[in-house]
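ok posting inputs for the adenosine-5-diphosphoribose job
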Amino acid sequence: MTQPLARAIQKMKAAKRIVAFTGAGVSQESGVPTFRDHNGLWENHRFEEVATPEGFQADPVLVWRFYMARRQLAKQVKPNAAHLAIAGWEKQFSFAGVVTQNIDGLHAQAGSRHVQELHGNIWKTECSRCHRVEVNEATELSADLPHCRDCGGLLRPHVVWFGEALNESVVHEALLWLYQADVIIVIGTSGAVEPAASFVREAKQKGAYVIEINTQKTALTPFVDLTLYGKSAELLGGPLRI
Ligand code: APR
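and the output
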């Protein structure tokens, strides 16, 4: 066993409160495209068109088509060994939960019960007028765009777009977990998106030991205590299986 791997295991076993912080990389081995890698989602799209409130206002049909295509893909994928290992941590450790930037719902599907979804969930809609949120599992766009059954407002995907604020109560709970953690495992995120990345840096400043799992260096690498290079499902389903 390599030294960093042994150190990570030792830290996790000795931890009083662990939190996992995940990004698109944790779902990559399930077949969900990441955003900023080669072949990433943003490589094929101008994010301004499909992931901003202005984009939605300009062309809601285009945005809904984009999200329906993502739902069709999300429906076909399954949690991988990393999601399953993380779900298992709830039973193994004093584990607060998973703070994720992912909208694919795969952590919950793997059995994680404590998940804060910083960027929303692709399987929910939000009314752009009354802000009612509900589960919506359609994968095809009907002839008319979806509308709120309460107020008739236009429904939008319940995801946080560029330029939008994160949900306050989700952030509150996520920060509570992160600031009280003594070990944080950051998995599969480029750390390029704020404020999410700042949550990890702040928790580190408050004293957490931060372990990063990624295939490459990230914007968070200089701030963490230990980086384990590799694919998360391979590592967490193999040598890092605890
Ligand atoms: N195992 C571990 N890490 C991986 C794997 C893998 N199998 N595959 C890719 N990675 C790493 C990449 O090296 C990269 O650092 O996952 C990271 C993915 O980074 P991004 O594509 O930037 O995804 P993420 O960090 O989740 O993006 C944050 O940006 O556009 C938004 O809202 C979107 O939530 C998303 C946010």
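notes: The chain is about 40% helix and 20% strand. The CA atoms of residues 175 and 199 lie 7 Å apart.
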